[in-house]
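Hi R.,

As promised, here are both runs. First protein below:
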Amino acid sequence: MPYDPMYVKPMREELTSLGIRELLTADEVDAAVKAEGTTMVVVNSVCGCAAGAARPAIALALKHEVVPDHIVTVFAGQDLEATERMRSYFTGVPPSSPSLAILRDGELVAFMPRHNIEGRTAEMIASALTSAFDSLLETRNT
């Protein structure tokens, strides 16, 4: 059973206020994954590590001079169909909430599961994200 929409509304808005596009259906996920270029996916969550570290880290990382071409989010425990479909593209990794993924032309190239978010500061996570962003730019330019 999904979480109450009123309960998760502020958690959603924390990302959408940054310009991150919510994907609410499997069809929206499929279209986003097929987008050319790099796509960062935020699997949002109600847990404390999402609130205390993941979402603040994303806000910090998006201030970096290099960012992915597209940034989208699904909400685990709320958008069940969209989350399940998105996770189907994360080949070789178990489901994790929250988590951060980077796809290039639909292929998973980086993944940060919950156990790499828990216990870390927003600054540590943002640093890992911006390093991944820089690596994507370097491989795109070679």
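And here is the second one, sequence first, then its structure tokens:
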Amino acid sequence: MVNKCTKHEPIVTEQDLLAHLSEVRPTLHRFCTRITGSVFDGEDLVQATLLRAYQALAHSAPINDLLAWLLKLAHNLMIDNHRAVQARPEGHMVVQEPIDIDQAIHNAALDDLDWLMTLPPIQRSVLILNNGFGYSAQQSATLLHTTEDAIKSALARARGQLKHYMPSMEKTISDDDTRRLKLYTELFNQRKFDDLLALTIDEIKLDMVAKAQLQGKKDIQFYFSNYNALTDWHAEPGMVEGKPAMLVFEPAISKTTPQYVVLLEYAADALKRLQDFRYARYVMESAKWQQV
């Protein structure tokens, strides 16, 4: 459960927002992950939320509860996106009270992103805010600009679905993705960065999440040079949410749990995008990963 009452001076300027962002970004990501159903889509929503926050700050009164404000913005963006998808012809998306189901099953359901995505958006947000973040029905109603009765109704329906919760099936990746992933990881560990560079498309995109976004082989070469100067990492091929990813371990911290991941996307056998979460390690708090 999060501390919703982190004390700070009211947020007035972009500099104020930046000064306190590191305090709330991991919690914001946790919320966004659960309402989007993916740690990666969750990070995309975090970035969209922060962009909306920067745009709204100039026209907003001083923000006294930064986390609550950002959660509201993230929820509204998710609802807007859901409505936009539903509007397309091809879009067919599927007060702390004691819960009356086994607590272990309840916790597993809140961590099961595939299952959470089966709930309608409002039920998803209300369930996460109440049972995951400790917001009361009254607090959730204020946050989501609705009535307490509407919150309680949505929460009751979501809890009703919890009684029928079944864990999601384990995901797999294709043989081709496994082959490419193992080759990339092997070359990365051997620091054969020239060979890796030859495997990329000319306009490869690099997203150093929460840090910078770059494009082109020149930037990738600089990225590889930075890794070559580091000595605290070792990579293993793996999957995160069914996607091929390089699991990066820092043995001084843990030899059994990766500290962060690098997500890989291909065009045929060429690497077209890298998402490196070295500066967004909070993603691993919610990520379901496995080695391959």
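A quick note on the second one: The domain at 14-162 is CATH 1.20.140.160 (Butyryl-CoA Dehydrogenase, subunit A; domain 3). Let me know what you think.

Best,
J.
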